[in-house]
Amino acid sequence: MRIGVLTSGGDSPGMNAAIRAVVRAALSNGDKVFGVSDGYRGLVEGRFKEFTRSDVSEILNRGGTILGTARLPEFKYEAVRQLAVKQLQKNDIEALICIGGDGTYAGALALHHMGIKTIGIPGTIDNDIASSDYTIGFSTALNTACDAIDKLKDTSSSHQRCSIIEVMGRHCGDLALYSGLCTGAEYIFTNETGLDKEKLLKDLKENRLAGRRHAIVVISENMTDVYQLAKEVEDYSGYECRATVLGYVQRGGTPTPEDRLLAARLGGFAVDLLKQGVSGVCVGVIDNELRSTPIEEALNMKNIPSEELHNLVQKLK
Ligand code: ADP
């Protein structure tokens, strides 16, 4: 079989490990693998390169993606996808493994309906793909966020300060919830919890009066202007307050062993499924078992925030 592999949407650490796993697993089956540059954009433009075993050497521990990634909003139009199908047919590539988030999955599903065999692999730091307990990149981003928050906590404590830290995760609060829990944050706000500003200000004032030396607030991106919030906290609570937006550092770095392991397992599994003639599904690990889910179903699954973890935050703060 001739298989294409691409990375699309936002990049995440461990995408390279997934590419490597796909290439090596496919070659070991006697298949040929073609790397597609820059996601669906490169697909439409026919930018394919046949990969040998050594083309994916020494990338396992590198962040980013050697294939590059891009956004091509026009891919939702059938006429644009038709160009991609033509490029695949011209190169006799019958199957495509698409590594990315839910937008990437939507593209893979549309190609499946046009006769291309597609499999999705979850590569995003947000952990917002409900058909897998964890997505490739989440563990590394969590490590990065925890490291930064630990450091901010040190200095917050020295200066009797409140630190507000904005982490990524627009539609899924896992990065905020997990990093906040792991660093002992007093308050965690995600799009699932919402932000009750009045209550936060009141609580912080009470904390301050009770003599607590610092407070850590972890908040998901796009909830509010954290710099403005820091000003309001400072005016109201008596704490000096600083806001830090962690931003794109969370997208980079050497993938953790957990992300490499997940990437290896899911890359190998995706190739196995193609060999069995499966298409239109995405792969994941649920309760430590490899699982495949129809992409259509996966796109409609809701991320349910862990009630257990949110309750723990309240108890441990
Ligand atoms: P992610 O995969 O990380 O969620 P995006 O949402 O930006 O990132 O999607 C990545 C790419 O997937 C888009 O630039 C576009 O090319 C393609 N895509 C997104 N949504 C669709 C859709 N509904 N139909 C077809 N292709 C899509």
Short description:
ATP binds at residues 10, 71-72, 101-104. With 317 residues, the chain is of the alpha/beta class.
Give a description of the structure.
This protein is of the alpha/beta class and about 325 residues long. The protein has two domains: about 180 residues, Rossmann fold; about 110 residues, Rossmann fold. It has eleven helices and eleven strands. The strands form two sheets. The chain has a seven-stranded mixed sheet with strand order 3-2-1-4-5-10-11, sandwiched between helices. Strand 10 and strand 11 form a beta hairpin. Helix 5 packs across helix 6 and helix 6 packs parallel to helix 11. The longest helix is centred in the middle third of the chain and has 22 residues. The mean pLDDT is about 95. Bound molecules: adenosine-5'-diphosphate.
Question: How many DSSP H or I helices?
Answer: 11
Q: Based on the structure, what is the oligomeric state of the protein chains?
A: single chain
CATH class descriptor name of the largest domain: Alpha Beta
- Overall residue-averaged pLDDT value: 96
* Bound ions, cofactors and other small molecules, one mention each: adenosine-5'-diphosphate
Gyration radius, in Å? 22 Å
Q: Point out poorly predicted stretches.
A: none
Order of neighbouring strands in the sheet with most strands: 3-2-1-4-5-10-11
CATH topology of the largest domain: Rossmann fold
What would you call the shape?
A: elongated
**What is the terminal-to-terminal distance?**
54 Å
